[in-house]
Design goal:
about 300 residues, eight-stranded mixed beta sheet, single chain, Metallo-beta-lactamase, Chain A, seven-stranded mixed beta sheet, alpha/beta
Length: about 300
């Protein structure tokens, strides 16, 4: 009897150890982590997504003066190609830096572009270069789901704009992406305002019935007063809120009102003008944050 009891205890301990040692859902599919760099590009937006299998997506690219520094950053990361180019909208502070990437001949595989009704000179030049290089160019529309890596572990659901667009406003038609890896979620809001925030929430709830827990929100429109509305935040309730913003910028971003609303839902606010580049890493279950002021793209660094 004693031998049987010891055997049972031993099996129980082994099961417990296996449960503790079991990999996360994402790790179980091949290991590695998802890393997203929210780059310090001043009063602009740029983020680099580095998937576990080495696939790379660039979500906005900062303004034109950031282009050469962005190239140096890509070189430091040994980025040989960009699997997905994902601009939120064609304003210069979001796409200007990408021209330098194209001029340098960095290969691009796929591009998901905002509404074609906004034909800025910069976007048209870039579009011509993409077409001439044989890039797979698509137009963004709510309801699409992209696979951002070759291993199929990282996806991005397009939440905005709808097709056809509900407005002619370039900010409100920003491409909104919900990036998923395992059990972790990152929401990129472009420059949308309160009206589109409400529409995004309504569409998602109508289609899915619920919102996943948002680990990291890239705060819409640099924390302007007309974004990060209370109803929107009450639904998504992000754990961290990254504000990409320039120090002492002339717009007054981020506004006290937006920061107060983010704080009211328990979000920890991470500002590039105060902290520098912010690095988030997901193992598929949990997200960790590293402050990396040593990664900078030609803008004054936080003290």
């Amino acid at each position: 009897m004693l031998r049987l009891q010891l055997l049972i205890l031993g099996l129980a301990a082994l099961v417990g150890w296996l449960a503790l040692a079991a990999p996360s859902p994402a790790q179980a599919q091949g290991g590695g982590a998802l890393t997203i760099f929210f780059l310090n590009v001043g009063q602009a937006d740029a983020a680099l997504l580095d998937a576990p299998d080495g696939s790379v997506a660039l979500l906005d690219a900062g303004d034109a003066p950031s282009g050469q520094d962005l190239l140096r950053f890509l070189g430091d990361r040994a980025v040989a190609r960009i699997d997905w180019w994902l601009p939120s909208h064609p304003h210069a502070d979001h796409v200007g830096g990408f021209t330098a990437v194209l001029n340098a001949g960095v290969p691009v595989v796929h591009a998901l572009l905002p509404s074609p009704q906004y034909n800025t000179p910069t976007l048209m030049r870039q579009l011509g270069m993409l077409f001439s290089s044989g890039v797979d160019v698509q137009n963004a529309a709510a309801g699409q789901t992209l696979t951002l890596d070759r291993a199929g572990q990282v996806t991005a659901e397009v939440l905005n704009p709808p097709e056809p667009p509900e407005t002619n406003d370039v900010n409100e038609n920003s491409v909104v992406l919900l990036v998923n890896f395992g059990q972790t979620y990152f929401l990129f809001g472009g420059d949308i305002g309160t009206r589109t925030e409400a529409n995004v929430v309504a569409r998602q709830l109508a289609n899915v019935g619920t919102w996943p827990p948002i680990d990291v929100l890239k705060v819409p429109h640099h924390g302007s007063a007309g974004s990060s509305s209370q109803p929107f935040l009450n639904v998504i309730r992000p754990r961290w809120a990254v504000v990409s913003v320039g120090a002492r910028n002339s717009y007054g971003h981020p506004t006290v009102a937006a920061l107060d609303r983010l704080t009211s839902v328990g979000a920890e606010i991470l500002r590039t003008d105060q902290l520098g580049t912010i690095v988030t890493t997901s193992d598929g279950t949990t997200v960790t944050v590293e402050i990396a002021p040593y990664i900078h793209l030609g803008v004054p660094q936080p003290p």
